[in-house]
């Protein structure tokens, strides 16, 4: 059987929490020593909608994810180009030859952009050894996220969170199956209606 090393471990995702809500502690190294922080595990429903600079990053990541899962050459091209604007750093710019629109060419390019953007989105996440339940349970590995955005991208990366595929909504939710892409029935029908309006030329 082929191993899927990327899916081999799933660690709990933890964030700072007020004392009353804490499920454990971590000692976080700081330039001056250690800071003791109270933390709790978080789930999809704890994530708030993304704001500010996380929004364009989130839409680029969402476009890549959906283009990759649909294996649609046109969507892949649009998503790769959009990601290219965000990853425009010296030396990393990839010149794509759009004369070859085969999936064999487009899929690896899209996956590369996806992993690049995700690694950027996860840059502040740290692997820590936390002390669940004040030491009642043995210390365990966890992913510590310093803010809502990094927690959102972490849950997205481990498949425990989706953001509603309705462009006008983008509410975070926990999918009940890998096929669920809208957070509600209404968002699904709104998007399908918008698409069919666009197709028939009315707006
Ligand atoms: Zn929605």
Molecular structure report:
- The chain has helices spanning 54-70, 73-86, 103-121, 148-157, 185-199, and strands spanning 13-16, 24-30, 33-41, 126-132, 140-144, 162-163, 172-173.
- The protein is an alpha+beta fold.
- Among the domains are: 54-121, no CATH class; 164-203, no CATH class.
- A 5-stranded mixed beta barrel has the order 1-3-2-4-5. Strands 6-7 form a two-stranded antiparallel ribbon.
- A hairpin with a 2-residue loop joins strand 2 (24-30) and strand 3.
- Helix 1 packs antiparallel against helix 2 (73-86), helix 1 (54-70) packs antiparallel against helix 3 and helix 2 runs parallel beside helix 3 (103-121).
- It binds zinc ion.
- The site of zinc ion (ZN) has 8 residues, from loops.
């Amino acid at each position: 059987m082929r191993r899927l090393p990327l899916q081999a471990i799933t660690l709990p995702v933890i964030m700072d929490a007020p004392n009353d809500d804490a499920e454990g502690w971590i000692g976080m190294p700081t330039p001056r020593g250690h800071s003791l922080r109270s933390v709790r595990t978080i789930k999809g429903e704890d994530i708030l909608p993304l704001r500010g600079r996380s929004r364009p990053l989130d839409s680029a990541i969402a476009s890549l994810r959906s283009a990759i899962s649909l294996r649609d050459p046109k969507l892949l091209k649009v998503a790769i180009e959009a990601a290219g604007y965000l990853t425009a750093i010296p030396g990393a710019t990839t010149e794509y030859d759009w004369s070859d629109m085969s999936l064999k060419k487009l899929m690896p390019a899209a996956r590369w952009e996806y992993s690049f953007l995700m690694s950027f989105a996860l840059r502040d996440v740290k692997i820590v050894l936390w002390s669940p339940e004040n030491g009642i349970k043995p210390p365990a590995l966890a992913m510590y996220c310093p803010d809502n955005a990094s927690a959102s991208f972490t849950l997205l990366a481990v498949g425990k969170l989706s953001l509603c595929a309705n462009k006008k909504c983008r509410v975070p939710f926990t999918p009940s199956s890998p096929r669920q892409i809208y957070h509600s029935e209404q968002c699904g029908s709104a998007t399908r209606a918008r698409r069919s309006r666009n197709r028939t030329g009315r707006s």
